[in-house]
Design brief:
The structure is a single chain. This protein is an alpha+beta fold. The chain has 7 helices and 24 strands. It has helices spanning 284-293, 313-323, 356-365, 384-398, 407-412, 425-433, 452-462; strands at residues 12-13, 19-20, 23-29, 34-35, 44-55, 61-72, 82-86, 89-90, 96-97, 111-117, 120-121, 128-133, 148-155, 161-167, 171-178, 183-185, 190-194, 204-208, 213-215, 221-227, 230-232, 238-247, 252-259, 265-269. It has a 6-stranded mixed β-sheet with strand order 16-17-24-22-20-21, with no helix packed on it. A hairpin with a 5-residue loop joins strand 5 (44-55) and strand 6 (61-72). The radius of gyration is 43 Å and the shape is rod-shaped. 30% of the residues are buried.
């Protein structure tokens, strides 16, 4: 049973040793505020004053007062009575929890303190206080930065103090990715940066082992590079790898081999239209014109054109539609739009596809006819003779197609002219005769896939400026 101050056992005697029964007992707390005798059963520091103003047995007046300080507390408190935990992990007195990692958010709410005496849970602020300090012994109100924090539980109604430490670790960075590359070639694992003639200082986004992204300020890390296996500044055109990463940020540290994603390199290039279109390529000027006129966009909305790849039947129709002044601004190449649909008449065409609007126009205008089975094959790569046939039909729609009088003679002037299929002979001869195709006696390669770079070159040779005059012609370009 707990023992409390018992006012019934207070006795008062006069100077002769005679007991006086008439006296008053008053109580105040440590702040001087009036209290009651019942308050003496609760922890705290109290001042008990006994005041006498009476007459003794001899008829003499006895007056005066005496006081005593009474401290009520828990005398059996040990570390077994104090429980400190962080994120559900108990921390013994004087021990350190090192499992916490910087998250950028306040983690103080993960701290839990509980003090008990028997079956009674004591109250913070009344029975004990909790103070959190950092490694500089500064009291803090949050746990955010990577640091060593000390949790002190100091008794108010008992004398015991309890300390626990929380060592918040720095985030270990494993990967960094340029935040503002000119373009990204995911297929060949290349990040492209623009050549400026000055040393480049690209921004990077960092990742940890769990894939969480972190943004560090420029003064919190430093990188060195290699070009061709030799240390070099990131300046001249060429291919670079990261040699070393030094991180000075207070909440982050570089892992043992923090670097670009496995396999990736950085290429500094002076290419201005698309990252993968060299300025000296035969198709560079035509691609630049096509982009400026709105015939083409980058692959998947990127700054990559993939000039050596084949071009699909769907994409070549999109090019012709844009040449005619059509717009697909509401959709990106390679994507569908569930809110817009177009009837093309082909069984294998998604009515919501990015190219459906252009294909509906091209079919109505007679530029494309599809296969015998009623399908169009939108993903099929276009051959040279197929593309030129579409272009010739487009030229007829524009009103400036003029067929060749002697098709055989024109095809005969080209080494592989005899390999052109019958359906494409007139169109190929027209393209050769007008200088759109096989300039300087080059091969036609009629059954080969036409590359994206070659297709755009031929298209721009035919029409270097967008034709807005087709708006009211068959096909309904809008």
């Amino acid at each position: 049973m707990p023992a409390y101050f018992d006012s019934s056992k207070v006795t008062v005697e006069d100077q002769d040793g005679d007991e006086i029964e008439d006296f008053d007992v008053t109580v105040v707390d440590e702040d001087g505020k009036e209290a009651t005798l019942d308050d003496l059963k609760t922890p705290g520091t109290w001042t008990v004053t006994v005041t006498v103003n009476a007459t003794n047995d001899d008829g003499e007046v006895v007056a005066g007062s005496e006081y005593v300080t009474v401290k009520v507390g828990y005398t059996t408190m040990t570390e077994a009575n104090v429980f400190v935990s962080f994120d559900g992990r108990n921390i013994a007195d004087g021990q350190t929890d090192s499992q916490a990692v910087y998250s950028g958010e306040d983690q103080l709410d993960k701290l839990s303190v509980k003090v008990v005496s028997g079956d009674k849970e004591l109250a913070e602020g009344t029975d004990y206080e909790v103070k959190v300090t950092n490694s500089k012994d500064e009291e803090v109100k949050e746990i955010v930065d990577a640091d060593l924090y000390t949790i002190t539980v100091k008794g108010l109604s008992f004398d015991t103090s309890y300390t626990a430490n929380i060592d918040v670790q720095k985030v270990e960075l494993t990967t960094l990715i340029p935040s503002n590359p000119f373009a990204v070639d995911t297929a060949n694992e290349i990040y492209y940066l623009n050549h400026t003639g000055e040393e480049l200082e690209p921004e990077y986004t960092f990742e940890d082992a769990e894939g969480n992204e972190w943004k560090l300020s420029a003064d919190e890390y430093e990188l060195t590079y290699k070009k061709g296996g030799t240390s070099a500044d990131l300046k001249d055109e060429g291919t670079y790898t990261i040699d070393n990463v030094s991180v000075t940020a207070k909440n982050f540290r570089a892992g043992a081999s923090v670097a670009l994603p496995t396999g990736y390199t950085i290429v500094v290039t002076s290419n201005r239209v698309f990252a993968d279109v060299p300025n000296d390529a035969y198709y560079a000027e035509a691609v630049a014109t096509a982009k400026q006129e709105g015939y083409i966009e980058g692959m998947g909305g990127s700054n990559m054109f993939m000039p050596n790849n084949g071009i699909s039947r769907a994409d070549i129709v999109v090019v012709l539609y844009r040449m005619a002044g059509g717009s697909l601004d509401s959709m990106k190449d390679g994507m569908t739009n569930e809110e817009v649909s177009y009837v093309t008449g082909f069984g294998d065409v998604d009515k919501n596809a990015y190219y459906a609007k252009a294909l509906a126009w091209a079919a109505k205008a007679g530029i494309v006819t599809g296969y015998e089975d009623g399908n169009f094959g939108p993903a099929d790569y276009v051959t040279v003779e197929q593309f030129v046939t579409m272009l010739a039909r487009y030229a007829e729609l524009c009103g400036n197609y003029e067929g060749v009088e002697d098709v055989d003679a024109v095809l005969g002037d080209v080494a592989d002219g005899d390999q052109v299929s019958e359906f494409g002979q007139e169109a190929v001869a027209w393209a050769i005769d007008n200088g759109y195709l096989a300039q300087g006696g080059a091969d036609v390669q009629p059954q080969s896939q036409v590359s994206r770079g070659r297709a755009i070159t031929v298209a721009v040779r035919y029409q270097p400026e967008q034709n807005d005059g087709l708006i009211n012609l068959p096909g309904g370009v809008k």
